[in-house]
Amino acid sequence: MRCRSEGESEGGCGEEAAEHTADTLAGVSDDVREQLGTLPRGPGVYLFRDEGDDVLYVGKAKSLRARVRSYFNRGDQRLGIDRMVGRVRRIEVIVTRSEAEALHLEQNLVKRHRPPFNVRLRDDKSFPYIAVTASDEYPRVMFTRERHRRGAVYFGPFANAKRVRETLDVLNRVFQFRPCEGPNPGRHSGIPCLDFHIERCTAPCIGAVSREEYRAQIDGVIAFLSGDTRSIVRELERKMREAAGGERYEEAARYRNRLIAIESLAERQGADRKTVGTVDVIGLAADGDRAAVQLFPLRDGKLIDRYAFHLENVEGQDRATILESFCLEYYTSAPRVPPQVIVPCDIEHTEAIAGFLSRLRGSAVEVRAPVRGEKRRLAELADENARLALTHEATAAERTRLRRVEALESLRESLNLESLPVRVECFDISNIQGRDIVASMTVFVDAQPKKAHYRTFSVHGLEGQDDFASMAQVVARRFARLRDGGDTGRHDASFSSVPNLVVIDGGKGQLAAALEAIHETGELPRVAVIALAKREEAVYVPGSPAPIVLERHDPGLQLLQRIRDEAHRFAVSYHRQRRDTRAFASIFDTLEGIGPARRRAILRHFGSAERFLAASQEEVEAVPGLPAKTARAVFAQLHRTGGAP
């Protein structure tokens, strides 16, 4: 299409443009077409919503009009875009003053809505941290995966939980902070624990160390985790020399051992690059729908750790967009933002990320791709590590896939099944002396758990403990839902799916009960049914008096055991939940100021009535959504009534 030159009339070109637009927007609904014609041209954020008004995708743009229209006129060729665009029924836009502001808003909206077509960072909430409860009179230093505790200083996130625990062990030997839980040190007996006698604690509980001295120990921990090892090493060397000079050789040996431990830990934490300063170095590798990110945090020139991340849903995204999505996800939950972030050498136009990170930090953050020197070498190293991580994940995924295929083939051959057991359902019963009888149904598809299809059952109308009748009732209810399909008005994707294999946790009795229940249900697709007995790990099949005994290392048997153990775990978990709910109900009947919402919050936080009753006041105050005043009142009520030990 030719654009008019200055002085030409607008008629011909305008008609041609209108015709071109009509062609490219063919197939777009009238409502969406009307919204596309009213989009603003400035920067902002756009949300694509489906027929149910759920958010499909959140994005930001320098020009909302140009960016959003590119999805509908085939200007965006990324894989899966056609599938997403076909579901869009409403476009929502939010205009901002700058691209950096749009980036910040995009991050908040992605966090809130978790859209299915946005890049996802896997397991972004489960990384380990080291927490120092600085607001306590005698602070603790502990491993945690949560960051909501008030008055605590957090270090991390770390990629390896084992290394975090090893670091804590070394720090405890050097600084001898208290390992006991709760805001106050010591036990009710007033006698120091074993850690004091083996020099793992300075026993503030009995006054063996003053508050100021203990605080100095904690300051040393914080200094070390912040990257300052030199001052700690110099202090330990000074004390060692003084002890040796005073002929206190055992004391000097203890300082020597602590010095060796701290130097060894410092060496493991990275090389010394004084000229680099405090930066985060990010490496990125992408292949198809997967991407790997390696982040090297350097503090005062010391590489203190290496964090590895994997991202999904990235196919068709350019490297700059993937990096931007990662920074939004990671730095929002990171404890601190460094003054400089080094990105891969091919990344350009980092102004929006820099503006976003500057807002988070509260001061200027430089984001740049280095062209020479040590920082470029670090960037290349991070990129190389990301490529290796991506290759390793692909290799591991392929090995896992082959093992799954081998297990399914082994099951089909060993059990003489008509088809490959692609979908396997397993049933288990859980109760205590006939009370609160419950059952679980776990589902494995392609030899992997499909947790969205797990279901639980409450068994009704039975007197006492009768595992056979319980299994018959549960299996009958499950296959009645399959028979009825959607006629009941309660469509369920799990119950409407036909299993290739049903596994019953039990022996011949449970198998017979399940088969009779399926037979009485009526016309159903052919389904293979077996039972797996716990003690002898023997497989019972219909029509055979003797069980099938598989080799202990047979991949098919190992898969069956995995499925059975998962069903048992899920049933026991549901049974425990029923008991805890009943126990919580009786506890909360006597507590003032606790309604249904706060009851659920407490139950989610503690998980069981026993943990709630044993909790300290600080732990009760840490419940998300529970005001501090209410938490103190609840703790006082529990102790006043003797509810807590």
Automatic annotation (TrEMBL):
The keyword Protein transport does not apply. GO terms for molecular function: DNA binding; excinuclease ABC activity. Residues 230-265 form the UVR domain. CDD domains: GIY-YIG_UvrC_Cho. Residues 281-518 form the UvrC family homology region profile domain. Residues 41-119 form the GIY-YIG domain. Its main location: cytoplasm. Keywords: Cytoplasm, DNA damage, DNA excision, DNA repair, Excision nuclease, SOS response. GO terms for biological process: nucleotide-excision repair; SOS response. InterPro entries: GIY-YIG_endonuc, GIY-YIG_endonuc_sf, GIY-YIG_UvrC_Cho, RuvA_2-like, UVR_dom, UVR_dom_sf, UvrABC_protein_C, UvrC. One of its GO terms (cellular component) is excinuclease repair complex. Belongs to the UvrC family. The UvrABC repair system catalyzes the recognition and processing of DNA lesions. UvrC both incises the 5' and 3' sides of the lesion. The N-terminal half is responsible for the 3' incision and the C-terminal half is responsible for the 5' incision. Interacts with UvrB in an incision complex. This is UvrABC system protein C. It comes from Gaiella occulta.
